[in-house]
Amino acid sequence: MRTTLTSILLVFSSSLVALPLLHAHHDTEKMIALFSERIQSGEASAELYFQRAIEYRVLRKYAKAEADLQQALKVDPNYTAAHRELAHLLAKKGKNSLAIQSARQAIHASRDIIERSGAMILLARLLAASGQPELALQHCRDAFLLRPSGKVEWYLLHAELLNSLEMDRKRQEVLAAGYAATHSIVLRNAWIDALLDAGEHGTAMPIIEKELKESRLKSSWLLRFARAKIATSQDVEARAALRLCLEELTVRIHPERPDISLIAQRGLARALLGRSEGARQDLEQALAAGADQWMTATLKRTLTNAPAIDLP
Description:
Elements: H1 15-40, H2 46-58, H3 62-75, H4 80-92, H5 96-109, H6 113-129, H7 133-146, H8 152-164, H9 168-182, H10 185-197, H11 201-214, H12 219-231, H13 235-252, H14 260-272, H15 276-288, H16 293-303
Helix pairs in contact: 1-2, 2-3, 3-4, 4-5, 4-6, 5-6, 6-7, 7-8, 8-9, 9-10, 10-11, 11-12, 12-13, 12-14, 13-14, 14-15, 14-16, 15-16
């Protein structure tokens, strides 16, 4: 393969974001002080407690955020947004059972289809994270029944649940339908990944080769090309693609503020080359930074199998 990188990729300067971050931190504390003043003056509404909780969360003061959310729900037990936010916080603290309970309460407290379907998706995510994919899939499907158009992240969740249950054909159908409904490139790419997972390289390869010719940033397409070549025992071409992929990612990954998706890509390239230790480190870094399931699913699956090729 003679694919070469055709452009120099820019790296963001840390000095450009340091000042805005400090300014945002200052504004958050100012908002907390304002909400606190209004609460102490007797205007203690569920909305004020909720808004202050959001600001505490921004500052990563999770205990104070949780306390405010609990207080908001004392004032208004049917405050759906507070139930959802509490579920997120509880899940972050590893309290999965309580998080699931809060998500269920959010469903019951929902006032309309939008709130209810969103709460169902949240519950599906929490159930999936707790090792209950069948039940998660049921709630995901229920959300689509309420809102058939769905959202991009809903389709991705639905597809990953189907993948975890080894329902490959249905997974492809869901992603194809999602792309048709939303025209999301993310869903189109996830559909191609599903084709590769199912061994349908003939369908995927024309799209991959076209993107390699036309895309300025090629790392994700080089990975897909390598996966297809490995599956057909064309290791020389796969190795060349993976080397180019790692070269591009070395330039693109910022050392202080790395993009999660790029870390996952690097992990997959390393895993495909048999560099399991580095791949696991990338997986851990991506997960710690909050990577979604769809971002790391292929990397996780690759790490469970023997290395496809070995780069000396």
